[in-house]
Amino acid sequence: MLLCLPPHRRFYRLASLFFALWTASLLAACSGGQRSDLETLPINHYLQKPGDFLGNRYVLRAQINEQLKWEKGLGRVLAVVVEGSDARLPVFVPETVGDNLHVGQRYELEVIIEQEGLIYVEALRKY
To answer: Which domain of life is it from (predicted)?
Structure first.
């Protein structure tokens, strides 16, 4: 059907199709609803031997329980309660990652386990 059109109309049709596909891919890439493909942090094992997880990346779904410390230019340490668990864990959120974080908010956190077993948040999304 496209080949039956005059060349100038074919160009506009193809351009419109390309633009629609480009827009759709851009929206998908910028979507805040993306889910991480990271493995969930095995909380019970982490609590027993945090050193076994150093350098690994995980996802945590958690609710902010308390802000433990904040330092301007550096970030904050939050206590979070992990979904499906009673575990209350401290996590470090650098200033560049999180702005207005409040007690009670729930987030999907992409984390890396750093030295001393510190849970360092690399990205977060509300859910």
So the answer is: Bacteria
**What does the pLDDT average to over 7-18?**
62
Other residues' Cβ atoms within 10 Å of the Cβ of residue 43: 18
Q: Residue 62 region, left (φ>0) first, then alpha (ψ -120 to 50), else beta?
A: beta
What is the CA 13 to chain-centroid distance, rounded? 37
Whether residue 98 contacts residue 121, with contact meaning beta carbons closer than 8 Å, is answered with yes
pLDDT over 50 (residue 2): no
Residue 67 has pLDDT above 90, yes or no: yes
Residue 57, pLDDT > 90, answer: yes
**111 and 120 Cβ atoms separated by less than 8 Å:** yes
One-letter amino acid for residue 24 of the chain: A
**CATH architecture assigned to 43-126:** Beta Barrel (2.40)
- The answer on pLDDT for 23 being more than 60 is no
DSSP 21: H
